[in-house]
Amino acid sequence: MMLDEPNPRERVDGRAEPAARPRPSRPAESVMPIQAVPMPDREVPIELARTPDMVHAWLDGELSLSAVRGPEWARHVEFWSQVDQDVEERRQIHAPAGLVERIMAALPEASPRLVTPWWGRRVTMNPVAMAILSAGLVALGAAIGATLRR
Q: Which residues form the domain of 49?
């Protein structure tokens, strides 16, 4: 039987686990400079964040490719052409045979259930949240009292 635990800090027996320990900091020499870290292929470069309206019109099919072949739009057209080419390649990729059956076989037979009901769980709040909640309840009570006096 699988037990789905939405609160990872609370154990099955109901007791709370201690907070995670902070990780030790790494020495400065082991940190790579930003320029040396390779950019993931899914990240859009900052300078291409704002696409010109002419390129949007071309992407929407309102303009032909020859209409946006100017030097100011060349980077954007090249970028979106590369995205289109990559998407076409990925459309040709099919899942391996039997993948759906393996996924369905890995799913549990019974649906997951909570270890303890929601009303039986411990509620933990930090002191600032408790102070804000208390002040809000006092203000609400004052507002209701002032309304009822009228």
A: 39-93+117-149
User: Is residue 9 included in any domain, yes or no?
Assistant: no
Q: What's this model's pTM, rounded to 2 decimal places?
A: 0.36
Cα separation of 19 and 1, whole Å?
27
The count of C-alpha atoms lying within 13 angstroms of the C-alpha of 78, restricted to the half-sphere facing its C-beta, is 7
Structure tokens at 80: 């979106």
When divided into structural domains, the chain yields a total of 1
CB 65, CB 77: distance < 8 Å: yes
pLDDT tens digits for 85-141?
A: 999 999 988 888 999 999 999 988 887 776 788 888 888 889 999 999 999 999 999
